[in-house]
Write a structure and sequence with these properties.
With about 250 residues, the protein is α/β, with parallel strands linked by helices. Strands 1, 2, 3, 4, 5, 6, 7 and 8 form an eight-stranded mixed beta sheet that branches. α4 links the parallel β2 and β3. The mean pLDDT is about 95. It binds S-adenosylmethionine.
Length: about 250
């Protein structure tokens, strides 16, 4: 697992856009009432709640005890959340679909995730996922690494897995799933408030702050990316997402 820790309250306060974009992915999932669906990396539980409201039999698992605790607090009537690692779900043939939004770039050993998902699906079950694809947040990270190097620090090691369509399709096929569609697309994403870029780094890329003078780091980072990522009074993250639909 990555060493990323999840501040569930900060996540809900400033980064609700992640779950909001996931609602669009839920339309692609098109789960029917009565279907059994696993939300893999469910975070603070919004998609499970939405699916349950549509009478889908949804469960949510997440590797972070903090995120699961927050999901349970937000949805006390739903005893459907559990802490589990995507690479070892330990269930067989239980789900009509596995759904995952904004998770898989956080998990090293993608082949273990794919094989764990394949096991969890019933024959004919589908895997519908979206996560960071190759080139995701390239402008932010490139500039942040330059700022570190200028300050005499080593470039930080990034924890993410951002595959191309071909790379990820291979991983999923090796796990025994048939890829029905996969695509990579830009999704410039507006961040919350004038501190949006700083909040984004603190939430998702805290490893960039190791050893830096934070005030200087953020000032220089903002100067560097201002021309490209500041538009109409807001910061925009240069997200690039990979979507995949595969069937067992
Ligand atoms: C950006 S959040 C997305 C949460 C939720 N899917 C949403 O759309 O709001 C990423 C989530 O992936 C979870 N995660 C990271 N590594 C994981 C792993 N190995 N197994 C399960 N969940 C993991 C994190 O704990 C975090 O809740």
């Amino acid at each position: 697992m990555s060493t990323q820790t999840w501040d569930a309250a900060l996540y809900d306060r400033h980064h609700g856009f992640v779950a909001s974009y996931g609602q669009d992915l839920l339309e692609l999932l098109a789960a029917l009432p009565g279907e059994r669906v696993l939300d893999l990396g469910c975070g603070t539980g919004d998609h499970v709640a939405l699916l349950r409201s549509r009478r889908v039999v949804a469960d949510g698992v997440d590797a972070s005890a903090e995120m699961i605790a927050r999901a349970e607090e937000k949805y006390p009537d739903f005893p459907y959340f559990a802490v589990a690692d995507a690479r070892k779900l330990g269930v067989e043939g239980r789900y009509d679909a596995v759904f995952s939004n904004a998770v898989l770039h956080w998990v090293p050993q993608p082949w273990r995730v794919a094989s764990s998902v394949a096991k969890a699906l019933k024959p004919g079950g589908r895997f519908v996922a979206e996560f960071g694809g190759s080139g995701n947040v390239g402008t932010i990270i490139g500039a942040a690494q330059d700022v570190r190097v200028e300050a005499g620090l080593p470039a930080a090691k990034t924890p993410w897995y951002y595959p191309s369509v071909a790379q990820y399709a291979r991983v999923v096929e090796r796990a025994g799933l048939e890829v029905r569609s996969a695509w990579l697309f830009d999704r410039p994403t507006v961040l919350d408030g004038t501190a949006g870029l700083e909040n984004w780094v603190r939430m998702f890329a805290g490893f960039l702050l190791e050893g830096v003078d934070e005030a200087v780091f953020f000032r220089k980072l903002e100067e560097r990316v201002h021309e490209v990522l500041w538009r109409n009074g807001a910061w925009w993250a240069d997200y690039r997402r990979l979507r995949i639909v595969a069937v067992k």
